[in-house]
Design goal:
The chain is an all-alpha fold and about 140 residues long. The protein is about 90% helix and about 0% strand. Helix 1 runs parallel beside helix 3 and helix 2 runs antiparallel to helix 4. The longest helix is centred in the middle third of the chain and has 49 residues. InterPro entries: DUF842_euk (IPR008560). This is Protein FAM136A. Belongs to the FAM136 family.
Length: about 140
């Protein structure tokens, strides 16, 4: 993928992740740490009970991080498939006898379309992630 196109996608995804982290993940981290601290304050609990309590405190954040990671992986996989399709089209054009400038133009145009298409997916992906994060029981 052209460097400028790659930078656009990376910047947009980073902004989305930072927004999710600031608005959702940080709050979950705060709850997790407070919950974990409360687990340690009961002197009557056994070591095993404290560990189980802490594990329960970590569960919502672990689910949240898993959701975000899964969505980002799916997004990356889709973008990669799209750009691979562009590579295949460019190779087919080159194999049919087209000159390098025509092949490069096709590749640039196709990759630009992939990038635009996937940048347009980010708002719905963000909404879906926010809804999923909000639905995780605390």
């Amino acid at each position: 993928m052209a460097e400028a196109q790659q930078a656009r996608v990376q910047k947009a995804v980073e902004e989305m992740v930072q927004s999710l982290e600031k608005d959702h993940i940080r709050k979950m981290q705060g709850r997790m740490f407070r919950c974990s601290a409360e687990c340690c304050e009961n002197p009557g609990h056994s070591m095993n009970q404290v560990h189980q309590c802490i594990d329960r405190c970590h569960t919502p954040l672990a689910k949240a991080q898993g959701l975000v990671t899964s969505e980002l992986e799916q997004f990356q996989d889709r973008l990669t498939r799209c750009t691979m399709h562009c590579s295949d089209k460019a190779k087919d054009l080159f194999d049919s006898g087209a000159k390098e400038p025509a092949v490069r133009a096709l590749m640039d145009s196709c990759v630009s379309s992939c990038v635009e298409e996937h940048l347009n997916l980010l708002p719905s992906m963000t909404r879906r992630l926010k809804d999923s994060l909000n639905s995780i029981p605390q």
